Amino acid sequence: MAALGRVWGPAVLRPRGAGPAGRRGVRALRRSPVRVLPPPKKEEAGAAPAEAPPGPRREPPPPPAVERSAAGPRLWYEKAAPGDRRLGKVVTIAKSKKFRDNHGKVLLEGHRLIKDALEAGAVPQTLFFSTVGHLKELPEAEIKRASLVKVKFEDIKIWSDLVTPQGLLGIFSKPDHAKMSYPATQLTNSLPLLLICDNIRDPGNLGTILRSATGVGCEKVLITKGCVDPWEPKVLRAGMGAHFRLPIIANLDWESVPSNLPAGTQVYVADNKDPGAAAKTTSVPRGAGRAGSAPGNTKAPAKSRPEAAPEHEDEEEAADIPELATQCYYEDWARTPVAVVIGGETHGLSVDALHLAASTGGKRLVIPMVPGVDSLNAAIAAAVVLFEGRRQLLQRHKQEDDRQKVPVAG
């Protein structure tokens, strides 16, 4: 192999017969040496190219605008430059339900919520953080799959929905309940008790209901069309991680609800109808029987009834409401498996929910209150009924175990 040599410009680059103009160009080249490389060695025909010498493979250096994080030797994050608008743009878009539905992305905020999501198998896409310490508290193997961007705390504070921002925001792929890994303790302590949400429009109420369902140990939660999106930021905040502890199936139409229930499920509806009143269903218009209505109140809210609706339409609608027996919530009703429907405070229980309960032999569950009290909050009513259902199921299970342990006289 010929040795690598250096030849100065005048000896190689000056063309013959170059004039003064040519010499001026050559004079500029005299200041820099020219490296002459030998021709590449020709490989024999059919021979494989030479392999790289054995040895440890070096990792490529980080990109120019990336700093090494103290959270791990292979964890890289990008430092956002001044005026970077990605955070504001991403957060604004992710708060839109249309964007969540079309692109399948959700916004999570706070250390606890993001950690619960990662541990349950949710896929992170981008994490915005203000200090490297936030990354140390998250599972490194999971956040390595995301783009990590360090931003100023002031920027996160501008776009945060929390009163006291924690300096951590994440964009995740919308979780699929069929692919999630829920905590083993939650699955072990779950009961054959399901919750069906009907016309829950308030984000805080839905989040609190999901939190109660998690504490009760519900097997799953079904959310029908007409309810607020469970992945709305306010619902996530009120849920306190419930979204990643039990299956939540949202945006269901009533025709598909039965297929998401175990075989033989009996459906009950939470209601405030006076159990001592006569069961007159022909005078109960649509929207009555909601968890937030007053006892004995059989009139629909003014907003739920058209102003100029003909009387015969109201009569037809009332006639379509099935007749359901009524009992107090503390009486025996929870048998395996069972589902409870909670209606919203404004629109109340839908006729579809009442038909589903009637078709399964269910009843209305009433929470008696002091006369003159207007109503119960839907989230409170859900907690009262669900925890009573838990108590009854556990008591029934204990009685069955005791019967099995009784020795048979020989």
Automatic annotation (TrEMBL):
GO molecular function, one term: RNA binding
Biased amino acid composition, Basic residues: 24-33
Chain segments carrying region Disordered: 1-73, 272-319
Any GO BP annotation: rRNA processing
Keywords: Methyltransferase, rRNA processing, Transferase
Domain RNA 2-O ribose methyltransferase substrate binding: 107-178
InterPro entries: Alpha/beta_knot_MTases, MRM3-like_sub_bind, Ribosomal_eL30-like_sf, rRNA_Methyltransferase, SpoU_MeTrfase, SpoU_subst-bd, tRNA_m1G_MTases_N
Residue stretches of biased makeup (Pro residues): 51-65
Low complexity composition bias: residue spans: 9-23, 285-296
Pfam (any one): SpoU_methylase
GO cellular component: cytoplasm
Coiled coil (UniProt feature): none
Family: Belongs to the class IV-like SAM-binding methyltransferase superfamily. RNA methyltransferase TrmH family.
Protein name (database record): MRM3 methyltransferase
Gene designation: Mrm3
